[in-house]
Amino acid sequence: MAAKSQITVLSEKSESENLQRHGSIRKVLHSLVGNDSLLGISARMLDRPKQCRVEDDLHPYQDYLREYALISEYKMLCQHHIPGLYMIPSANAGHVWFGVLFVRSGLYKGGIFRFTLLISDNFPDSTPPRVIFENKIFHPCINEETQELNVSSVFNIWCENENHVWQVLQYTSKIFYEIPTENSVNLIAADLYNSDIEKYKELVGESIESSKQSLFKRNLSDDAHYFRFEEFNETLHYDARVTLKSGQCRTNSISKRALSWINEGTLKPCSISAESIAMYK
User: Fold this and answer.
1) What pTM did the predictor assign?
2) Which of 42, 47, 100, 64 has its CA nearest to residue 229?
3) pLDDT per residue over 196-235, tens digit each?
4) Residue 76 pLDDT more than 80?
5) Does the pLDDT value for residue 23 go beyond 50?
6) DSSP state of 11
């Protein structure tokens, strides 16, 4: 009887330990949320009446979910390869992205326009991102006082399942090649574009020159990810310039052997054979 009782106690103990394991959830999220376990939250979610909001208990994770949404948006932007556009999120705030646009043709050819993309804190359930240029740009779609692009004329209602940040940035680039005058915020620019194109070109030229003159300024932001440019230095930049113009990447001097390569079927680092390495050279 004593042996049978001991076996029963051990069985109950083993079953109790199994119930306490949370599986893969434990690897992703912290086990405590507001002094409550994930198991307790899950049980309440199952028993919760339908009129109660699930968001009440998920609120502690909203910041992480929004961060994942921003990472996803940036990945989509990288996949679309908008010509002449360079973007990077701020080192200090994920809702602030720095951008620079190189215009390669049209009336604004030669312009190098810096701007900041401001994303709402409650993204993606939010208003469209804001695009604010650093320099004064003469354009029908850009506010003359604030230098903010009129994004709402195209994205008047932001739908998280249909609209994405890359679409806003694509529109930002497009206005310098196909100049729209409807829903203008700079009425003077719109009127000149339609009535006196030569005068319009003159004022656009001033915007282009202004963007070039301020390109090398370093006191605009102390953010580590802010775009910074240096004037051409023959000693430092000549080789890179030749490579870029040739359109060929110099990879001969780069070793293709990765020190972490692992032979298939093993877990030992650097276990790949010399014959296998030679195949990649």
Assistant:
1) 0.65
2) 100
3) 999 999 999 999 999 998 888 766 678 888 888 888 888 8
4) yes
5) no
6) H
Residue 155: CB atoms within 10 A of its CB come to 16
Rg from Cα positions in the chain: 28
Q: Model confidence at 260, in pLDDT bands (50, 70, 90)?
A: low
Cα angle vertex 91, ends 134, 232, to 5°?
Answer: 60
Helix (H, G, I), strand (E, B) or coil at 203: helix
Asked if the peptide bond before residue 124 counts as cis, ω within 30 degrees of 0, the response is yes
Bridge partners (DSSP) of residue 100 are: 86, 114
Give Cα separations from 165 to 30, 50, 108, 123 (angstroms).
30, 34, 23, 10
Nearest to 114 by CA among 258, 220, 251: 220
Dump pLDDT digits (tens) for 85-99: 999 998 888 889 999
Segments in 110-195 forming alpha helices (H): 165-174, 187-195
Look at residue 43 and give its three-state secondary structure. helix
- Strand ranges (DSSP E) for the chain? 85-89, 96-102, 112-118, 130-133
As to burial, measured by CB atoms within 10 angstroms (0-12 exposed, 13-18 middle, 19+ buried), residue 132 is middle
**Of 213, 139, 226, 215, residue with least CA distance to 174:** 139
Token pair for residue 5? 């009782």
Q: What are the tokens at 38?
A: 């994930």
Give the neighbor-by-neighbor strand order of the sheet with 112-118.
Answer: 85-89, 96-102, 112-118, 130-133
